[in-house]
Protein 1
Amino acid sequence: MTELSTRHSLPRVSRRIASIAESATLAVDAKAKALKAAGRPVIGFGVGEPDFPTPDYIVEAAVEAARQPRFHRYSPAGGLPELKQAIAAKTQRDSGYAIDPAQVLVTNGGKQAVYEAFASLLDPGDEVLVPTPFWTTYPEAIRLAGGVPVEVFAGPEQGYLVSVEQLEAALTPRTKVLLFVSPSNPTGAVYPADAVREIGNWAADQGLWVVTDEIYEHLTYDGVPFTSIASAAPALGDRVVIVNGVAKTYAMTGWRVGWMVGPQDLVKAATNLQSHATSNVANVSQMAALAAVSGPLTAVEEMKTAFDRRRRAMVAGLNAIDGVECPTPHGAFYAYADVRGLLGRSLAGTTPRTSAELATLILEQVEVAVVPGEAFGPSGFLRLSYALGDEDLATGVARLQEFLSGAK
């Protein structure tokens, strides 16, 4: 074989990128939108995206910024100084964690913050403890950064909350990072303050880093408080990284502004990475984010009232289906239903054996889009977002009830 033919036989796409799984939640949403565009009456419970418009005062801040020539130019790769200052103040206010603006990196959405945090922390083979069920992007970001995700599963029997004992059992000499997420996507679980403190202190005792995603911090219900592990476990010192963003709290998914908070040396390294990958976040979006994080939370509370109403309606509707068990989530805007009682039973002449097969069947038969548990860990579960209109939610749940009640 010639040298040229050898080169032609090499993979066209790198193994590193080819090994990454597509975002399951975005894939479900894309399929639902394609069916809607074709005139099908699909109800989409797939993607976690508030159905509300971005509040007017945030939009007006963006419009004003777009008129200013200084925002038509490059800005610092790590973020506008005024936004970094506001994020530092917001972190103190909401997380009880005092930081300097130099500890902030503004990113193109929360996903970039997640990836850059792991890329800056992990060397090949380093392990990350990942409480499971997990958001679909976490393990892919870890693998892309060269790390190894280690799943630690907590089922509905324990409220989808992992214990220190489970984390201890998964610990190895290669463990470097603990991922901690509360409120959780996909389960909506919220860790009590005592559990947050215990897990944080355990991680500190083990010399681990903690990467904590706080993007759902303002979305808790039933009087359940949000507790930041960064402030609950001060023993972690400078080995904690917070990732966050404006997408969920302020209905700004399309504006693409997130951030990473951490020790200055790590943030500087991540900023260097971003300077080569994307440069600065769009200035107009940054100014919109500035208005959001430094403004009132009135609009957030109004949205949360609607989410709470939809949460209760969805949980009640799902639990009325024989074979479905759905714990009441205390945070975010997702219900995580245990559908293991439906698997192996006949539906419309088909017998689904996995939640992926069940989700496909539901979409085909009643045009309701849900995300199967395989996207977040083990099979046997479905995630449904209740961040959609009340009428669509009621219609979608009614379709599920009618279809799934026929399981034999």
Protein 2
Amino acid sequence: MTADESLGRLDDDDYPAYTMGRAAELLGTTPGFLRAIGEARLITPLRSEGGHRRYSRYQLRMAARARELVDQGTPIEAACRIIILEDQLEEARRINAEYRRAGGSSNPSAAA
């Protein structure tokens, strides 16, 4: 891998650049919290060749949102479900906006 290829990954939200310890430090939480949200299936960290968990910036944003909800008193499983639903809603809105920009019809039967 060239230096240019490595630098290009710095802008990639999905590149697993952060170790568990660094991720926990950035979030102001513990590795146990990261394991718990992994067990609740909010995020699934990638593994390094040595088997260590690695997190992306996108996953850190999800974890930060989970921490915010948990700090407000939401049980971790419920917080994870809320975030998953929020993420799905945002994706649906993005797809709808793309569809509208492409000139799609809001009435599927009109296309027939």
Protein 3
Amino acid sequence: MGALPVFRWRLAPDGLATRRQLRARGLRPGGQDVVAQLERPRRRRGPLVAYLYRVDRAKPVRPMTPAKWAALAKANAARRICPECQRDAGYVIPPSLGMCATCAFPDEQRAA
């Protein structure tokens, strides 16, 4: 495989799109290889890089099945359960705390 063509930010030719742009159109790369890359220069750091895919080779996004919806709902519910008190916190528990606010800051809850 040779080197990929590199385009500057906002100068990619028509017919090429990033993953996010494909997704916005209801498409996915569908197993095709990257055909080019897009670079956005930054000060004091290396450029941001985005890979480009051909739009004409992209495939439609697979629809969500009832089983996938159920698995997603179960995963999101698990993120709301406090591992300390085993209650539904009513919000997604932040990974920085690892537990609900009531368990993380018990002194503040008693004072209120």
Protein 4
Amino acid sequence: MTPHVEPDPQAGAAVKAADRAHVFHSWSAQGLIDPLAVAGAEGSYFWDYDGNRYLDFTSGLVYTNIGYQHPTVVEAIREQAGRLATFAPAFAVDVRSEAARLIAERTPGDLDKIFFTNGGAEAVENAVRMARLHTGRAKVLSAYRSYHGATSTAINLTGDPRRWPSDTGSAGVVHFWAPFPYRSPFYSSTQAEESARALQHLEDTIAFEGPQTVAAIVLETIPGTAGIMAPPPGYLAGVREICDRYGIVFVLDEVMAGFGRTGAWFAAEHYGVVPDLMTFAKGVNSGYVPLGGVAISAEIAATFDKRPYPGGLTYSGHPLACAAAVATIRVMGDEKVVEHAAHIGETVLGPGLRELAERHPSVGEVRGLGAFWALELVRDRETREPLVPYNASGEAAAPMAAFGAACKKNGLWPFINMNRTHAVPACNITEAEAKEGLAALDAALTVADEHTV
């Protein structure tokens, strides 16, 4: 694949200048960033105005599950815009109803009612509101290694440092340690020990907080930005049992892990667990038009049969977004994208990343499934000291910055967070493209190796 436009550095400079003059970027010190001006994208690649092409191992922000510019989805958006570009959420609209039906068909258990939002953070926000109203309780428990969004409740639920500047300390959120065998907070030596001790820690936390005060437990089925740590066997089933015993609403956040990312429609399928509420976004329409939502169980939906639900959004179930979702879900079925993600993870990405780990001392652990992988980079494999300190910035983060620069030099756009790089390409990435990405990682890891002991 080659860029569809001739290099035009002057146009790129104009785009960059307008951006720097007027766009306020998220999560950034505005005067310290230098965003790449993007000229186009297709499939698993994007390119700049200088003609440099990059294999995107980030899927945007882990959402272009079917790649960029899929013609079927682009045409569906175009057709919907010509027929009914927008309409208020209080009305029944065919494409909104069809999107909800297709999503409900794929969610586990009886999660058959769909509340649409504009993205994942709003989905989490409304799921927590539903849980609190359903139970009449206030507290919500979430894990330290997590990310749930940047709205008020969602950012307080988040466990990583992005929470700190906005943490009110009074949002009714209690954090706990979820399992992470590689860096076990419970000094476990086996997966079974990690699961059992994590469950005991959670139950102890609930006991000391007062079970009657806890509305919900919110977990990413497989944490995404926090490190792609698949929970050990039995853990999610154990959380489900604890929630049932204490009347706590179990919320699974599938914003990143859902819609084929793990080689299943939803990651919960891998664990045989059905939550009471499930949040989604990102891959539901490959991010082509902003869309998220909450899939709601029959019991919680019934709470609002005669009692108005006090929440809504002007663009809930926007027709363009729903048209993109309908087209994306059908494409994923027709082209067997979910099955392909499972296959590429089992036969190319997983084996390839583990082979890299054997040769590069900077790789402490490889973990993941489907098109959802993480490499934990370390200075010392024996002590597991991270390649850079937790939440490092500036000079302290230089080894990861050098690794990232080496990836880009080799035509790979990497996903980097703290001391990790994630391999999260489009779920329909080809075998040849995946191997191209592995080769670029191989070259870049030699730079990371220079910082090991």
